[in-house]
Design brief:
heterodimer; A: 1136 residues; mainly beta; five-stranded mixed β-sheet; 18 helices; 13% helix; globular; disordered N terminus; B: 464 residues; two-stranded antiparallel sheet; two-stranded antiparallel ribbon; 46% helix
């Protein structure tokens, strides 16, 4: 066999000769054609994985053949043909023995002509596959088939008839029909004919017609890649988008992958206006930090009511394949497995989740195995992260020294007087620094701990099967290298999906195993490097201190070397492994009734290890017995949950369409955590806790055990009259251990109405409107992300003992009458589609009123109660969100499309009903210098500070505005007022999508207009630089923009002031921002002939750039502990 | 439908008990659980933040000007009564908050005993409740003495503190001092009634040996709010109120049963060099075991501490206080010149650890002692004889006939209650306008109501 030759004819960009050799060896042993094809696939994957970039050029062989043979054996002719055409022949010896001698005389004939001539009288037949000609023994022709007329009906997933479905006989284009309004059809077919039934949005079905069959019932399944017409709620309940009255948005895996190949969060925020990722300035682009996500604003005051197993109370609920899951799982989820994501935003769509739905629901469905021959899909993602340090505006060495001089760093002052005797030391210190600066020392510390991170993911998925049994097997591995040295993640996952259908029964099972290892950077916080002075050298990583000297009051201080601790063998990593299994069963009892049930079991274990080397500077003042620390914290979780559902769907008299569901569910979550500490390590320790001197003195193992349970019953119905008037209703009765002891159950109700105006008679004349739908709904939902024992009094032991033994004291006094936090949501929306799908508008206005809030209130301390969960006040959010799309070029048949889109969201949130009950929280906020307050009529995003009138040019001091309008130099917390809001006036994205044949281009630009930010860089690095802070490097503006002498009109106070600056409106700046969230280019080679020859059915390549630019009106530091990064990625997807 | 129903109808499904915490229901279902709930309060009171140190040996005695806390000392702001200083404010807030947390625990206990009846027999329940009422009065009386006005006749109607008798979210008013006093007295009356059958009245203190079985109700009664502790507290309360007759009557009840609380013997304080009973544990009507005791000793009194950290009096002051009488059991055995850490002065050894770690009076923090009853009786009856009784038990001779009672009483309070926090309350009760200056060997510092009254903490006033 000449496979080697076959491959060598194609030119690969990267030489793979060695691999070829191995492959060749394997191939030598393979003789038959079938095996051959399989090997080709494997072979190709192998090559793709190792070389990535391949170029294929068409073979250089002439297709014209000249032959002149008389009475030649067939084998000889084959040899000649192969020589001339490059085509291989596959045959067996018995076959050629049957052959008659060949007489052939052709000049420059085509291969086809030649072959036809050769095989004209032979008892053999041939067919050509790839570049191979396969010989077979001729089979006698079948007799003419008997044709019969068949009746049938086409139904949708809920058993409702589908009108307009196409029905045809495979391989015979002329024989086709469509179903009538009752879903019925009639077609002529003969035995062994394959009837293909297809309808937009549904998976086509092929039915082998059997003799004597009179009636065909075809039930179509929803196609996940085309979710346009179906709303998947994740509960097993699906709704037809045309008749549903809730505000939802669905995105396919394709759409998400067009924006980013990192995780689905990045895709969703670009696609949906209501899905907001709040920028985390603290953790930047740390791959181990979880994003902060909100849908339609906040519903809770973040408070101390959470226990360690609860999630962020403003985070939406995530549903993966029908079951609740964590944000961590979603972020780590292999994006290539995602079939669709649906965002449920309002009451009508989320009420099915009752007590957990207030923050919206994100429903993710993974791919289901497809029918057919084994289909292999391989995806490779590459990602390059480049730290973005542009937000930093630090001084260089000369500037820093000058700044220090001006701010009095080298002038002795003990608080009351100058003393010339100590001045000498300071002068010499200044000269040492000056000498260094003049020697040219100017260290750029910022880029010391950062790197360009290269990450990659490989995933492979194979699926296939027949009508009854289908399988899907996937594996993925992702290695992420962060923008800070040493930080990264390794994720791996594997899944096995099986589905089995027999008559009325349909079973499916999804097994998913995953794990990760997350490493934090040994360099610690990025701040340490931002703070390091440029006049110190960075070439001595083994020195504990960069300098030990005296400050301007002659007190000793130590300048830590940020590189020192990073070089020690500390460990900070987290390891996780999780396994979950979903088993689902559906029984189609009759055309109208369906019973469905599922069980999920999940188990996970996470271990966090934190080891600090005994040499770490943190232990400088620690006794030898406690130098070095080790902490091991292990969390195990186990949960199971299941549901059972009854679905009824029927169309009455062709006009009334009804779908109703009754569903019950239960869930149990067990979590436990154990943590212990060990101290005292030898300096050469590798972090093995066995080398510790002892456990941490006076410590004991810490444990936390949590068990939560919920159950619920849900009734839901959707009704449509002639597809014009629509109504939805759902009622959920929810029980949870998290509710007050006296209120274990809580009802949730929602209802909606809608009007499909486009289906009205009078609209039929207006052709340019395709869809015009109005819908409105209202309902209650709850929020359950609180500690489960807030409602009961609990006691705990501590490690004290006396004559009488141990004792317990109250841990928390429960509030048995705690009412759970429910939101009443009202939403009004419209969907408009015009000009044959060229122009679409989707707009919603909504109100979300959370009343009462659950807040941990501090009572007067004499009650002995701190952070008592109470029902106080309400939070009212009103907002608008809209998206508009227009396609100037719209030729889907030719695969030519240009679509531009604009989305926007805007909302306001206001508290009410506090009546000063949260005064203590406000006092706390004031004491901790926080910018938030809880006051009626104001929102959670408001910024509170004393209004500032700027810097007095005469004195360089700040002038504040008092409540009564007077100006003062004296800062008084009583003057604190609302000075801004971090909530943007409008936020959204502009999208531009061009697809031309296989090529596509996608651009997503985010805009944020009119938000206020408190600029921490100005507050901490331009002002508020105290004597100790002078040692740290500072923002350039501290040198250039501060007041220096009387008459200066400056934005910042006198450069010589090292006193504390209180937070005032001077640091609040209005920001308008534009950022390049994503740009991507892709090419799909689908339909190319050479793909087929390679055994590929599909090949796509994509290139992305994420966060590639950012323009803002505010210059501020981004990424305090971890810098932000820009990313460039590539992905390659091949199907076989 | 029938398939679906059982999943929801099962209310028991939601009846989940936390596994890492105890619920009230779990706790109050067994006598052992209830005992742990009561003992938890004693344990909490014995921690550093309250009677383990702050309200006894450290903060209170700094306020009483016991120690040489100069301008360079860490606690100088306390010595100068700078109640606006951040750390002083934080400490006064912590005392207030933690004491009221114990009050809530007491109130919750009383309420729960009623809510879960029948777990204890009626006799035991009476003792549990009696102790709880006694503790409630004890804690809030001390809060009144700290944060309330100087309780003279004229200012007894000034606002002081809230008094809590229930656990919950209801916020009680801040009451005038005399009303708080009424509530304290009422609670003590109730406690006295409930403790009528306290075994301490028949079988005594019943201190167990190191390996003896401990009975929660009958053993070590002086480490619990027993009948005599309640009587002793009554005496203290009445005297503070100026009701000398009632004070004398209560003190007399204890003095008549003085045999239950035998005086310290020279053998235990002078001869036993390894394990001296420096706290005179046998004489205690009420004390607590504080597990933090020796850490507090290490952090506050150990001679190897730096001058800015150590709590120790000026040597000359100490001599004056004990009138240079080396025979006094309270002087020589408890104040030792070690020379460790270059200390040229005697340091405080009352709460230093013992050699034998099984000694029963290890960790003991005295709160009410028998001698105080004699002092109260002396003050109420105007009788020097009661003072002499105590003096004789301390290795001292009788006072001369012409001795001035108040002067001698003050001296006795200064000597007797070192490290026990009572001197501050004595000064405040007497509303003394000058007290000895600890920073020099002679002289006084002046006192006034602003210094005597702790301001209410912000955590109390701001949410009101």
């Amino acid at each position: 066999m000449k496979f080697n030759a076959l491959f060598q004819r194609r030119k690969f960009a990267c030489a793979a000769n060695f691999l070829m050799l191995i492959i060749d060896l394997i191939l030598q042993r393979i003789k038959t054609a079938d095996q051959r094809k399989f090997i080709m696939r494997i072979n190709l994957i192998f090559i793709l994985m190792t070389t990535m970039l391949l170029q294929v050029s068409a073979g250089g062989y002439a297709q014209r053949i000249t032959l002149n043979s008389t009475n030649a054996s067939l084998q000889e002719v084959f040899k000649e043909i192969r020589k001339q055409s490059g085509y291989d022949f596959v045959y067996t010896n018995p076959q050629v023995k049957m052959a008659k001698p060949v007489n052939i005389h052709v000049v420059k004939a085509s291969l086809d002509e030649v072959l036809q001539a050769c095989f004209a009288d032979q008892p053999l037949a041939y067919f050509v596959e790839d570049k191979t000609i396969i010989i077979k023994i001729k089979v006698p022709q079948l007799v003419q088939k008997q044709q019969a007329e068949v009746n049938g009906i086409v139904l949708d997933e809920a058993g409702r008839p589908i009108a307009g479905a196409s029905i045809r006989v495979k391989g015979n284009i002329s024989r086709g029909t469509i179903s009538n309004k009752d879903g019925r059809f009639r077609i002529n077919a003969s035995e062994h004919d394959i009837v293909v039934v297809s309808y937009i949005g549904y998976i086509s079905q092929e039915i082998k017609f059997k003799a004597g069959q009179q009636e065909l019932t075809v039930k179509l399944e929803i196609a996940e890649n085309n979710m346009k017409n179906v709303v998947v709620t994740g509960t097993g309940i699906t709704r037809n988008k045309n008749s549903f009255t809730g505000a939802t948005a669905s995105y396919t895996g394709e759409q998400l992958r067009a924006v980013s190949n990192q995780n689905i969060i990045q895709g969703l925020r670009a696609l949906d206006p209501s899905f907001i990722q709040i920028e985390n300035n603290q953790f930047g682009s740390n791959p181990n930090a979880l994003p902060n996500i909100e849908i339609r604003g906040k519903t809770s005051i973040s408070s101390s009511l959470q226990d360690q197993f609860a999630s962020d109370p403003n985070q939406p609920l995530f549903i993966l394949d029908g079951f609740e899951t964590s944000l961590r799982t979603i972020v780590d989820l292999n994006q290539n497995r995602v079939a669709s994501v649906t965002i449920l935003k309002d009451a009508a769509s989320t009420a099915m989740y009752g007590s957990k739905a207030s923050n919206g629901v994100v429903v993710i469905e993974t791919l289901k195995p497809r029918q057919g021959q084994m289909n292999l899909n391989y995806t490779s993602d590459f990602n390059i992260e480049m730290p973005d340090l542009k937000g930093y505006n630090m001084m260089n060495a000369a500037e820093k020294l000058e700044f220090e001089r001006l701010s009095g760093r080298y002038t002795y002052f003990d608080g009351t007087s100058n003393a010339p005797i100590y001045q000498l030391d300071l002068d010499s210190l200044y000269n040492v620094h000056l000498a260094e600066v003049q020697r040219g020392v100017n260290t750029y510390w910022l880029n010391v701990p950062v790197q360009t991170g290269f990450s990659q993911r490989h995933s492979i998925y194979a699926d296939g099967g027949d009508d009854a049994l289908r399988y899907g097997v996937g594996l993925s591995y992702k290695k992420t290298t962060g923008a800070m040295k040493g930080s990264g993640r390794n994720d791996w996952a594997g899944n096995v999906d099986l589905s089995y259908r027999k008559g009325k029964f349909n079973f499916s099972n999804k097994l998913y195993i995953s794990g990760y290892k997350a490493d934090e950077s040994p360099y610690g916080s990025f701040t340490n490097f931002v703070n390091a002075n440029p006049y110190y050298r960075k070439d001595s990583p083994n020195e504990r201190y960069l300098e030990v000297s005296g400050d301007n009051a002659n007190k000793w201080y130590y300048v830590p070397n940020p590189l020192y601790n990073a070089g020690l063998n500390s460990i900070n990593d987290t390891k996780n492994i999780a396994i979950q299994n979903n088993l689902q069963m559906i029984i189609d009892v009759s055309r109208e009734f369906k019973v469905q049930g599922a069980i999920q079991v999940q188990k996970g274990s996470t271990t966090q290890i934190n080891f600090l080397s005994p040499l770490n500077t943190a232990f400088d003042d620690t006794s030898i017995f406690e130098k070095g620390s080790y902490r091991n914290s292990r969390t195990n979780n186990f949960n199971y949950n299941g549901y059972l559902m009854l679905t009824y769907g029927k169309v009455f008299a062709g006009t009334h369409s009804l779908t109703a569901n009754l569903r019950t569910e239960m869930r149990n979550d067990d979590n436990d955590n154990i943590t212990f500490d060990a101290v005292g390590f030898p300096s050469s320790s590798n972090g093995n806790p066995g080398f510790a001197y002892s456990y941490k003195p006076n410590s004991k193992p810490l444990t936390a055990l949590g068990k939560t349970r919920t159950n619920a019953i849900l009734a839901s119905a959707n009704y449509a009259y002639k597809s014009r008037y629509l109504a939805d209703f759902s009622y959920r009765y929810d029980g949870s251990t998290a509710f007050g002891a006296n209120k274990k159950y809580s009802p949730y109700l929602s209802g909606g109405v809608g009007w499909n105006i486009h289906n009205e008679q009078f609209m039929k004349a207006i052709h340019w409107i395709n869809v015009l739908k109005l819908y409105a709904n209202m309902g209650t939902t709850g929020n359950q992300n609180f500690a489960s024992v807030s409602s009961i009094s609990t006691y705990g032991y501590d490690s004290y003992i006396n004559l009488f033994g141990q004792g317990v004291t109250l841990n928390s006094l429960g509030n048995p009458d705690l009412k759970w936090q429910n939101s009443v949501q009202t939403s009004l929306g419209t969907d408009i589609v015009m000009f044959d799908n060229r122009f679409t508008i989707n707009a919603n206005v909504y109100q979300k009123k959370t009343d009462p809030l659950v807040v941990a209130v501090d009572l007067p301390s004499s009650t002995g109660i701190k952070s008592f969960p109470m029902n106080v006040g309400l939070l009212n959010t009103r907002g608008v969100e809209a998206s508009i799309k227009y396609s100037p070029i719209y030729r889907p048949a030719e695969r030519v499309l240009w679509t531009i889109g604009l989305t926007g969201t805007s909302y306001t949130s206001k508290y009410d009903g506090f009546n000063n009950k949260l005064a203590s929280l406000n006092t706390k906020a004031q004491n901790s210098n926080s910018l938030t307050r809880y006051k009626d009529g104001y929102g959670p995003q408001d910024i509170w500070a004393v209004p500032s009138m700027g810097i007095d040019p005469g004195t360089g001091m700040e002038v504040f505005l008092k409540k009564d309008g007077q100006y003062t130099f004296i800062y008084d917390p009583n003057d604190i007022a609302r000075v801004g809001s971090t909530q943007p006036k409008v936020e959204g994205v502009f999208t531009n999508m061009v697809s031309y044949k296989g090529f596509n281009f996608n651009l997503v630009i985010r805009y944020i207009l009119g938000r206020d930010v408190f600029n921490d860089a100005l507050y901490n690095k331009v002002e508020n630089i105290n004597v100790q802070g002078l040692v740290n490097n500072q923002d350039k503006r501290a040198l250039y923009d501060r007041w220096k002498q009387p008459g200066d009109i400056a934005q910042f106070k006198s450069i010589s002031l090292t006193t504390t600056t209180p937070k005032s409106s001077r640091f609040v700046q209005n920001e308008n921002m534009l950022s390049g969230e994503s740009v991507s280019f892709g090419y799909n080679f689908q339909g190319r002939k050479w793909l087929n020859r390679l055994g590929l059915s599909d090949l796509r390549v994509n290139g992305y750039m994420n966060d590639f630019f950012r323009v803002s009106t505010v210059q501020q530091e981004r990424g305090i502990d971890y810098p932000f990064a820009r990313s460039v990625s590539f992905s390659l997807n091949a199907s076989f | 439908m029938t398939l679906l129903l059982p999943m929801v109808s099962c209310k028991k499904w939601l009846d989940v008990q936390p596994e890492d915490k105890l619920t009230e229901k779990q706790l109050y279902s067994t006598p052992a659980g209830i005992a742990e709930a009561l003992n938890g309060i004693y344990l909490d009171m014995g921690k550093t933040k309250l009677y383990g140190a702050t309200l006894t040996s450290t903060l209170m005695d700094v306020f009483a000007q016991r120690y040489n806390v100069g301008t360079l000392h860490n606690l100088t702001k306390y010595q100068t009564y700078t109640y606006t200083d951040k750390s002083v404010m934080a400490d006064l807030d912590a005392i207030w908050t933690n004491a009221y947390v114990d009050v809530v625990n007491v109130n919750k206990l009383i309420k729960s005993l009623e809510a879960y009846p029948g777990v204890l027999d009626s006799k035991s329940e009476a003792i549990f409740k009696g102790e709880a009422y006694g503790l409630r009065a004890f804690l809030q009386f001390d809060l009144l003495r700290m944060y309330g006005p100087v309780y003279g006749t004229s200012d007894s109607t000034k606002v002081s503190i809230p008094y809590y008798t229930t656990a919950g979210t209801a916020v009680n008013d801040i009451l005038p001092a005399n009303q708080v006093m009424n509530l304290v007295i009422a609670d003590l009356k109730k406690a006295e009634q409930l403790l009528t059958n306290d075994p301490v009245r028949t079988t005594g203190v019943n201190t167990p040996g190191p390996n003896d079985n401990v009975n929660f109700l009958t053993s070590g009664r002086n480490y619990r709010m027993n009948y005599f502790a309640v009587k002793g507290l009554q005496a203290r309360v009445y005297l503070y109120r100026g009701d000398k007759i009632s004070a004398a009557a209560a003190a007399k009840t204890v003095i008549d049963n003085a045999a239950t609380f035998p005086w310290i013997t020279p053998g235990k304080i002078l001869s036993d060099k390894a394990n001296p009973d420096r706290v005179f544990s046998t004489e205690l009507l009420f004390g607590l075991q504080s597990l933090d005791m020796y850490e507090n000793y290490r952090d506050n009194f150990s001679p190897d501490l730096q001058d800015k950290q150590i709590l120790a009096p000026l040597d000359a002051r100490l001599k004056t206080t004990y009138e240079n009488n080396e025979n006094d059991y309270r002087y020589n055995p408890e104040w030792i010149l070690t020379g460790i850490g270059g200390k040229s002065y005697r340091t405080f050894f009352k709460y230093a650890d013992l050699v034998d770690k099984t000694t029963i009076y290890r960790y003991v923090m005295p709160l009410i002692r028998l001698s105080e009853m004699y002092y109260i009786a002396a003050e109420a009856y105007g009788d020097l004889g009661y003072l002499n009784t105590v003096r004789n038990k301390r290795g001292l001779l009788n006072l001369p006939a012409g001795a001035v009672l108040n002067t001698e009483l003050q001296k006795e309070y200064q000597k007797e209650f070192f490290g026990e926090g009572q001197l501050w309350y004595y000064y405040k009760r007497r509303n003394l306008s000058s007290i000895p200056n600890p920073l020099s060997s002679t002289g006084n510092i002046s006192m006034n109501a602003t210094k005597y009254v702790f301001p209410l903490p912000l955590s109390e006033t701001s949410p009101r």
